[in-house]
Write a structure and sequence with these properties.
Layout (H helix, E strand, L loop, with lengths): L1 H13 L5 H6 L5 E3 L5 E4 L13 H6 L12 H13 L2 E2 L4 E3 L21 E3 L2 E7 L10 E9 L14 E2 L2 E6 L7 E13 L2 E13 L4 E3 L9 E10 L2 E8 L4 E8 L10 E7 L2 E2 L2 E2 L7 E11 L4 E2 L6 E7 L5 E8 L3 E6 L5
Length: 345
C-alpha cells in the first residue's frame, strides 16, 4: 500500500505544474466543475463503494483523502477510518467567494517568524510545526488533519459594537515564513447592534492570497464535530475534505493555487485566527474555546508530526495594542485547547 502511494506521489512531484486552463481541460471522467472557476468536485462513487477497503488509486480517483499508513501511523489511520465511516452523504458544493482573508501569520513590524519556540502573532493562535524546507519537494508537508468542535460565537461580554466580529478555525500548510496558505475550516462570526444579536457559521476553504470561499451546501452549527483535512498533489493543486460527524455529510473540493503562487510545504498549523476583513484585521469574536483532537501532519515520506512533536511550538494571538487575546494549551501530543482572553472575552 505504502509503495503504491509513494509511486503515485513521486509521479506527481516529477510532473510539470499545469496552468489553470490545462487543469480545467484535463478533468477526470468523474470530476465535476462547481459554480466557481478553478474549483471542482468528484461525482459520488458507485453504490457499494467502501473507502475503508478501497485501493489507494480508487481513493484518489473518487476524491477521498489519502490513507495514513496503518503500521507507521496507527492513530492517524484510526482517525481516517472514523472519518471515512462517517462519510455517508456526499454534498454537491455550492460555493460563495468572499473578500475575507485567513492569511499568513502577522508579526510585529520588522520581526521575522521564529521557529521552534513559543511565539506571538497579531492574527494566529494555535500550534505550528516547521520543517526547514525552502523549496517544494519530497520533504514538504503533504497533508494535515484534525477534529474540532464548531464554537459558539458572541461579542465580548458587555460589548455591542454595532458591527461584526470574526473568528476562523482551520488546519493548513504554509503561512509561517511563506507568503501562501493552503487551508480549510470554518468561520464563527458574531453581530450586535442595540437589541439585535446574531451569529453566522460556515465551512470554507482558501489558498491565500485568494480570499476564503464559503461552502454553503455543508451546513454547520455550534457544537458540530468536524473532521477537516487539507492536502496537495503538486505545488499548485490543493484539496479539502470536510466531514460533519453530526450529520454524516461530507464535501470534497479540488482547487488551484492563485496565479503566481506555489506551495512550499514548510509549515503545518492548527489555528484559530482573527482574519483580515475590509483591509484590516477584524475584531476577534468571543469564541470562548476550541478543542482540536487527533491533530497530525505528514510529509511525502510519511514522516508524521503533531502539536507535541519536536519542531512544534505554540503561538499566542495579540490584539492591536499588543495584549494577548487567544492562546493554546497542549493536551498530550496530538490535541490542543485554544481559548480567548483579554479584550476578546
Amino acid at each position: 500500500m505504502k509503495q503504491r502511494m509513494l509511486s503515485l506521489v513521486s509521479a506527481l512531484l516529477l510532473a510539470a505544474p499545469l496552468t489553470g486552463t490545462a487543469q480545467q481541460q484535463q478533468l477526470k471522467p468523474n470530476e465535476l466543475p462547481t459554480n466557481i472557476a478553478g474549483a471542482t468536485t468528484i461525482a459520488a462513487p458507485p453504490k457499494g463503494f467502501n473507502p475503508l477497503n478501497a485501493s489507494d488509486q480508487d481513493l484518489e480517483y473518487y476524491g477521498f483523502p489519502p490513507r495514513p499508513n496503518e503500521v507507521e501511523a496507527p492513530k492517524a489511520f484510526a482517525r481516517w477510518q472514523k472519518a471515512m465511516a462517517a462519510s455517508k452523504i456526499r454534498m454537491t458544493p455550492k460555493l460563495e467567494m468572499t473578500n475575507n482573508f485567513a492569511g499568513p501569520a502577522k508579526m510585529k513590524a520588522g520581526a521575522a517568524p521564529s521557529s521552534g519556540s513559543a511565539s506571538t502573532s497579531y492574527n494566529w493562535s494555535g500550534y505550528v510545526n516547521t520543517n526547514g524546507v525552502t523549496k517544494y519537494g519530497s520533504s514538504s508537508f503533504y497533508y494535515i488533519i484534525a477534529d474540532y468542535v464548531v464554537p459558539v460565537a458572541t461579542q465580548a461580554y458587555g460589548a455591542c459594537t454595532g458591527a461584526w466580529d470574526y473568528s476562523v478555525t482551520w488546519v493548513g500548510i504554509d503561512g509561517w515564513g511563506s507568503g501562501d496558505v493552503l487551508q480549510a475550516g470554518n468561520e464563527a462570526d458574531a453581530y450586535c447592534s442595540g437589541s439585535t444579536k446574531s451569529a453566522y457559521y460556515s465551512a470554507w476553504y482558501e489558498w491565500y492570497p485568494n480570499g476564503w470561499t464559503r461552502i454553503t451546501s455543508l451546513p454547520i452549527v455550534p457544537g458540530d464535530d468536524l473532521f477537516v483535512e487539507v492536502w496537495n498533489t503538486s505545488s499548485t493543486a490543493g484539496h479539502a475534505y470536510l466531514v460533519n460527524y453530526n450529520t454524516n455529510q461530507y464535501v470534497i473540493i479540488n482547487f488551484n493555487a492563485p496565479a503566481g503562487t506555489q506551495l512550499v510545504g514548510n509549515s503545518a498549523e492548527w489555528v484559530v485566527e482573527r482574519p483580515g476583513v475590509n483591509g484590516s484585521l477584524a475584531t476577534l469574536s468571543n469564541y470562548i474555546s476550541d478543542y482540536f483532537s487527533d491533530a497530525y501532519a505528514y510529509n511525502f515520506g510519511y514522516s508524521a508530526v503533531d502539536p507535541g512533536s519536536a519542531g512544534s511550538f505554540p503561538v499566542t494571538m495579540l490584539d492591536n495594542s499588543g495584549n494577548p487575546i487567544s492562546y493554546p494549551t497542549l493536551l498530550g501530543g496530538n490535541a490542543i485547547w485554544v481559548q480567548n482572553e483579554g479584550s476578546s472575552r
